[in-house]
Write a structure and sequence with these properties.
Rossmann fold; two-stranded antiparallel ribbon; sulfotransferase activity; binds adenosine-3'-5'-diphosphate; transferase; Sulfotransferase_dom; alpha/beta; 6 strands; EC 2.8.2.-; four-stranded parallel beta sheet; P-loop_NTPase
Amino acid sequence: MDSVEVFKGIRFPGFMHTQESLRTACGFQFQDTDVLLVTFPKSGTTWMQQVLSLILCKGHLWPIHNVPNWERAPWLEQNSFVKLLGNLDPSQPRLLTSHLGAEALGPALLHSKARVVYMARNPKDVLVSFYYFHKLAKFLPDPSSFEDFVAEFLEGTGFFGSWFEHVKGWLGLEPDLNMLFVTYEELHQAPRATLQKLSDFLGYPLGPEEEDFVLEHCSFPFMSQSSVVNYSLVPKEVMDPSQGRFLRKGVMGDWKEHFSPEQNEKFNTVYQAKMGNLGLHLPWTM
Ligand code: A3P
């Protein structure tokens, strides 16, 4: 199950990626009405898929309760994409998802006015979440040790490539795209203000009651119980529930429970070298 597809030097799980599916994503013809969510894995993709679905559904809740997130907001680069794209409701903007880097998707997007929501998360929390996901997801190899996992993350040689290059690549494209940059931490700390920013960006302003409604249905407790977003519909050969839950903790700063002082220092040194002089104001302290 944990076969590998290497594309443009980056490893992807072969279970749901092929050379053809990855090439299809790179050549995708975006429509100006499309909404594309881009994340590095474990940055809150499923959470944002839920928020964006709720904004776009305008109170029509059937999909939120009945359609899995991967069908509501299919991944461009996965081998199920073409089929799932055909099933999307043509009366609404298409909600699409991708973990691909800017160098792969940028050329196709530069020719469109599609809205791009880029969601980032504190990379230390991404790393911890990804570590547990490698145990849960049978299409990824079991991590040998946390120490090795940190080293691989810092080298950028793990699955889906380098977090640093992903964030820098997409931020580099921001001036040329119709793009909104948001963070997991903003959504956590200021959910209503972040929701308003997102709904304004999509051109779907919400009233206060609609906002309450969205916030309730994208909360961690609600999503943890919802089979169409908590991945409990996935066979155990694909995600093994004995190894944990997809909606694991949903908190900020869990890295503090995992990093040794040495690992933290090493991480900070690499972070500073790669991100330090970009002048970014990101809502996390390293
Ligand atoms: P943790 O493993 O730290 O708990 P992705 O969807 O990109 O794979 O990201 C998964 C991470 O987002 C998991 O992080 C998951 O718990 C968290 N997440 C999902 N829904 C969330 C929500 N409603 N509130 C907070 N965090 C959420």
